[in-house]
Design a protein that fits this description.
By secondary structure, the chain is of the alpha/beta class. It contains 15 helices and 16 strands. β12 and β13 form a beta hairpin. The structure holds adenosine monophosphate (AMP) and zinc ion.
Length: 458
């Protein structure tokens, strides 16, 4: 079955065809680096990784772009409040630049621990100020902007199509939210550029045709998407909370500038919840990946947990669910390891069954069930091994490298082994014996095999 994806824009499952043959452009909205990512945020990046792996599984060469929001995301989606990073800087005493760099590094570590493939391009908003200013200038020249005391705003009333992604009903909004309007002409209008206020009070500020200030949150994604993927690309994705505001505004900007659609497909991942409420930084009820590591839980157990729920269904996080996922992963690892060191061919029929599931809007829960069925089937071990290795390219559980703890030879022991080899080649028998003794003391025996010496726990 060819790949089908659920497109939020058309609210339908559509067959995926790329704009350029064999290549797929994918833009995923990245984190706002004013704090550590929580498990909810990471569920969204696991969903994006599953999407990317599925595209690659089907043979597309993916150009995956992810932004890092290091400026301009305010504490309120209504364009009021503080810049989240400047506010954190004021509280912590660290510079906004240092904080953004520190949380970006921590986020990249989290992705690595979850075996999430690195984006082809990872781009920072603060590195694309010129592109954002050029974008806003163009919108201004086309008559889509107006000025208030605190910034330059996008006039959403100029677009009949505004809010189509979210099926927005504008009339109801106007009546209900008049109080929040301030100087904005319409409740849906949003900031493109915000003025600094008192010069020097902000750490992140730039000169612009409109004065000293900083870009609004939405413009960065329109500007960076266009720079790194072109005006119109294949897939844009993010968490479900982006539908109503952030992605609606990205679409508005790009359509106003170019009169073209921004992306062919829009995909949104559902929330991770705790006790039926969205896991969020503001509620304080959230867990980081590090919290799991501190409890000795393998980060890939969290990946296994997320694979068990469809990306468009919300997932309730609990300690019991994570424990069950950890034991599921442990059993799968042991089962794959138990197949031994054998080489075979991928089984075509099982591959077709697995592919059918991931191609039906990334149905990883069912794909995981197919993987289990295959492992428990009567296929020869060598075929199972080759087939699960192929499946794991999509699952991302890093199954092939896993070894039972007793078989993992510490790096120091491997180093002694290599030194012993050199000593033997150089006929320094005394040194070679001393190195063997050290390996023994560390609890390992050396087997001299046709592939060279290997250590095994004694
Ligand atoms: P932020 O760092 O706040 O910009 O969010 C980064 C990504 O995480 C966005 O795509 C959000 O939609 C997503 N996100 C935020 N909270 C959750 C949650 N509880 N579950 C899943 N995704 C979330
Ligand atoms: Zn974005």
């Amino acid at each position: 079955m060819p790949l089908h994806l659920y497109d939020t824009y058309s609210r339908s499952l559509r067959p995926f065809e790329s704009i350029e043959e064999g290549k797929a452009g994918l833009y995923a909205c990245g984190p706002t680096v004013y704090d550590y990512a929580h498990l909810g945020n990471l569920r969204t990046y696991l969903f994006v990784d599953g999407l990317r792996r599925t595209l690659e599984f089907n043979g597309w060469q993916v150009r995956h772009v992810m932004n890092i929001t290091d400026v301009g995301h305010l504490t309120s989606d209504g364009d009021s409040g503080d810049d989240k990073i400047e506010a954190r800087s004021a509280r912590s005493g660290k510079s906004a630049w240092d904080l953004a760099a520190e949380f970006t590094r921590a986020f990249e570590d989290d992705l690595c621990q979850l075996n999430i493939l690195s984006p082809t391009v990872c781009c920072r908003a603060t590195d694309h100020i010129a592109e954002q200013i050029a974008f806003i200038s163009d919108l201004e020249a086309k008559g889509y902007t107006y000025r208030t005391q605190d910034g330059i705003y996008f006039d959403t009333t100029r677009q009949d199509s505004y809010g189509r992604l979210a099926r927005l009903k504008r009339d109801g909004l106007q009546a209900g939210k008049r109080v929040e309007l301030g100087e904005k002409r319409d409740i849906c209008d949003f900031a493109l550029w915000k003025f600094s206020g008192v010069p020097g009070q902000r750490q992140m500020e730039w000169d612009s045709p409109w004065g000293l200030g900083f870009p609004g949150w939405h413009i960065e994604c329109s500007a960076m998407g266009e720079k790194h993927l072109g005006r119109y690309f294949d897939i844009h994705c993010g968490g479900e909370d982006h539908v109503a505001v952030h992605h609606s505004n990205e679409i508005a900007q790009t359509e106003a500038r170019h009169g073209t659609r921004l992306a062919n497909f829009w995909l949104h991942g559902a929330f991770l919840k705790t006790q039926d409420a969205k896991m969020s930084k503001s509620s304080g009820d959230f867990l980081r990946l590090q919290s799991l590591l501190d409890q000795g839980i393998d980060p890939l157990a969290y990946r296994y947990l997320c694979l068990g729920a469809h990306y468009r269904s919300s997932l309730n996080f609990s300690g019991q669910a994570l424990d069950a996922a950890a034991s599921g992963l442990a059993r799968m690892r042991a089962s794959v390891h138990g197949l031994g060191d054998v080489a075979g061919e991928v089984d075509r029929a099982w591959l077709a069954r697995f592919t059918e599931q991931i191609n039906e809007d990334l149905n990883f829960p069912r794909a995981l069930a197919v993987a289990w069925e295959m492992l428990k089937s009567g296929l020869p071990d060598a075929v199972k091994k080759a087939t699960i290795a192929r499946f794991d390219a999509a699952l991302g559980l890093d199954l092939m490298r896993w070894q039972p703890a007793a078989l993992v030879v510490p790096a120091q022991v491997s180093a002694w082994l290599a030194q012993r080899e050199t000593a033997r080649e150089e006929r320094r028998w005394h040194d070679a014996d001393a190195l063997r003794a050290r390996v023994r003391e560390a609890g390992y025996e050396i087997d001299d095999t046709p592939q060279g010496p290997q250590a095994r726990a004694s």
